[in-house]
Amino acid sequence: MPRFFPSQFPISNSISPPPRLAMEQFMDSSFRSAIPAAQNFISVVFFSFAAGFFLFSVLLLLLRSRPWCNCEVCSVYLNSSWTTEFDNLSDWYAHLLRRSPTGTIHIHVLRNTITANPENVEYMLKTRFDNFPKGKNFSSILGDFLGHGIFNVDGDEWRFQRKMASLELGSISVRSYAFEIAAAEVSQRLIPLLSSVSGAGPIDLQDVFRRFAFDSICKISFGLDPGCLDLSLPMSDLATAFEIASMLSARRAAAPAPVLWKVKRLLNLGSERELRRAIRLVNDLADEVIRQRRKLGFASNHDLLSRFMASVSNDKYLRDIVISFLLAGRDTVSSGLTTFFLLISHNQHAAAGIHEEIDNLISGEVPTYDELRGMHYVHAALYESMRLFPPVQFDSKFCIDDDVLADGTFVRKNTRVTYHPYAMGRMETIWGSDGHQFRPERWLRNGVFSPESPFKYPVFQGGPRVCLGKEMAIMEMKTVIVSILRAFHIEAVDGGELRPKFAVGLTASLAGGLPVRVSRRAR
């Protein structure tokens, strides 16, 4: 047999494996190539399950919120068909409440019971106060913005802040300090500003009052001066971001199903992304306020933040307190002043009554504290203005346990219950047939101001949560009103509009502002 020598055949670079080994290698490579495909399949199955579970949860939440209610009121709300007859949602609510025999209505898709009945208001705010707190639902709506500030908490947190604020706002030294700040802001900035535009073109008075209120509250509360009351300068970043956060937080409360804004927040989409950006800026600037106050020292200062810092070391908690101060002091004061001058521009009789009181009692450019206390007609006119246009048009609580309101309305637990000062100011059952008219005399008895029950007039709330800054806010607004009307005539451009359209927000503000012409008052 011939012998084969290696030189007779070419030598291969590799030696072929045995058949069994080749099969094992093939199976091993096939298995390795199948792993990515299996991983992809598992990922798709997991994602599909997660997405299905998420959609199922959303569906359950929607079903619980009853967005399918077909009653006439809910259909009108969901379709926004009320806009064909009313300029504002609050006007439509007021219309429904006037038609209700009990002054109470239900918006089922919002799980909301709304009332304009003073007996119900007293029941909620005083008689059964513990059963109608702000509640977790309300706190979740405003929690990102207001955090653990006094307007967004219940229980021990609320009691602590309430006690601290009560001690400070009730002291004579703080009230004197606040009056000095407001009087200086009026005489040194507000009056010169109005003098500079006197006889010129229109000016947005709402913008002026926002700037004034922001400067004042920052000085009173933080001992810092943002210098906003200069029309040549833009509003501060904090003021602008605060306004955006207020508007977008209010939109959450109007959503038919809370899950809608919660999903948008989770995915950081649309308005929730804008809200997150605004809140981040508000928080950063509020933190800077605290840092500046701490840098300047707070042991011997009269501002409210310094007094809180003496007892609170948690900067996040202090930040929430700062934001609450701004909400209370800026938006409500500017809102009250704006609608006051809107009404006065349409009521020459009331303007004449104020001018007579000013001429008889005021000796200087800015009234003194004692002079303000004797101005009963001005006080009555301001209360009458806020009766028709309250800075906070409605306020909501959440019912903890099943309850029955004073008018016999059954309220199921975990239901939102809203009392509506804006609608209450338009109820003939409360204010008589002339309730729609601006008439300061309804508050006077023999020429002396005579207040009504806080549950008939809940502009400053009532019961344990009654507004602690009420006297300070009234003093500040009266100082502005008297000082302006003593020196100037304010005329709303094109006659103004006594059916104003309000912008969306936590407090009432006029959409488009309040354009006015300013002229020197002939004396």
TrEMBL record:
A GO-annotated cellular component: membrane
Topology versus the membrane: Single-pass membrane protein
Pfam family, one: p450
Names of required cofactors: heme
Family per record: Belongs to the cytochrome P450 family.
Catalysed reactions, semicolon-separated: 4'-O-methylnorbelladine + reduced [NADPH--hemoprotein reductase] + O2 = (10bR,4aS)-noroxomaritidine + oxidized [NADPH--hemoprotein reductase] + 2 H2O + H(+); 4'-O-methylnorbelladine + reduced [NADPH--hemoprotein reductase] + O2 = (10bS,4aR)-noroxomaritidine + oxidized [NADPH--hemoprotein reductase] + 2 H2O + H(+)
Enzyme Commission identifier(s): 1.14.19.50
Positions that bind heme: 467
Chief subcellular location: membrane
Source superkingdom: Eukaryota
Annotated compartments: Membrane
Name listed for the protein in its UniProt record: noroxomaritidine synthase
Entry-linked InterPro entries: Cyt_P450, Cyt_P450_E_grp-I, Cyt_P450_sf
Transmembrane segments: 41-63
UniProt keyword annotations, A-Z: Heme, Iron, Membrane, Metal-binding, Oxidoreductase, Transmembrane, Transmembrane helix
Keyword match Lipid metabolism: no
GO molecular function: heme binding; iron ion binding; monooxygenase activity; oxidoreductase activity, acting on paired donors, with incorporation or reduction of molecular oxygen
